[in-house]
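INPUT
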Amino acid sequence: MPVEANDPVFLKARDVLAKMLKVRPNTIFLTSRLKDDLGIDSVDGLDMSYALENTFGIEIEDYEVGRLHNMGDVVLLIREKSKKRK
Amino acid sequence: MKRIVVTGMGVLAPNGKTLTEFWQNNVQGVSGIDLLTSFDTKEFEVKIAGEIKDFDPAQYLLPGIYRKIDRFAQLGVSAAKMALEDSKLQITPENGSRIGVVIGSGLGGNLFHEEQMLNYLKEGNPDRVMASSVPRISPNSVSGYIAIAFKAKGPNLALSTACSSGANALGQALLLLRSGLSDVVIAGGVEAPLTPVTLAGYQALRCLSLKNHNPKEASSPFDKERDGFVLGEGAGVLLLETLEHAEKRKAKVYAEFTGYGTSCGAYSMVAPEPEGIDAAQSMENALKDSGISTDQIDYINAHGTGTLYNDSAETKAIKRVFGPRAYQIPVSSTKSMIGHTIGAAGALEAILSILTLQHQEIPPTINLKTPDPECDLDYVPNQSRKAKLTTVLSNSFGFGSNNAAVVFGRV
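OUTPUT
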């Protein structure tokens, strides 16, 4: 299923990232690139995965963080992990 | 020996967020002490502090920098930005490796550290501690992020000697410049100690004023009724460079940084040596380093914390160095207005001392009402004073019997 801009998982993940990055949620888009647009470096990536794990009740492996390029990828990973949890 | 000058300054203090505001409030005796608002002090005996109100790091730094750092580093990097802008120095790929950074801090990134400890303790779960804790709480996150933000690629040092950290950072920067290792050093001190656990620690140490009922009058250095210092936060950063480098780029020069003295009393981790012997040694070392005699000091910016022990020991130390002339030298305490900003104090007070040279006026020691026979020098009580000032000395004494004195001359 493609990810839409009103996807509840995206909106929730966007809020988590906005809080962490201290930016307004409406400045983060599905197409925002983690490194180039949001300035998320390797240490931020670890903070982000902890924050997403806590919010969505999932477990993300460190190598999986490195494969994420944009917010759309983040949403797909959360979906996949949430399915496994069920 | 190379001559070193000050060409830029940036301040964030409880009574001023620009150089102009900081100067005006200090010379008018405006206190920055108030009831502490950043957390609930209901269970605390101490309820007052020198906070920097309405500090918004976004006014100074990009989100890519300020969101990654603790408040102490936000203050430090912001003050460095102000100092750099003031100096009009352009850092380029060509000159970057000749520009160093030396920043003092007594405590490091305590606010973030405490938040992470609380997260851990809630569930006893190490996964609740953020990966970015390590770079955020490190004492060198200030000097590191100053380098990252402005591309200063020379020597980069963090220095921690408690309450003399800021003055020692300036002193070590002076040595780097004289040695030829750098042409420019961004140097100063920072502290953000207004966190629950840190305040609790200082409170337990019985060194803080309990005059909660009248915050503006609580910090009363050299007064007989003084009952301790008021904890404050702040950052002071100076752009120091060789005179040759400053002249080449036609920089505005505030003052010459003529000398630095430091010593350790090897006496106690918290109390000053009561006769001021080691404190006197640091002043004597600074005068010797400047190549001047005791007759040439026109003003002393005291460490002047407002504790029973510091103020009497410092008074004795000044008499030990200057003899009968001690009574003729105006001495004042900036901490009477901003409280004790720990690692930032030496840098903020150096900046104020340099501003006295520029304005030819001495800021007062406020709240000095009841003379103490143990403290009988001219502390410029309650009113600023016009004076002819050529050379000024600033004292900083830290826990661990660590002393630093810096001397600046008018240009």
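end of record. Chain A has one domain: 8-85.
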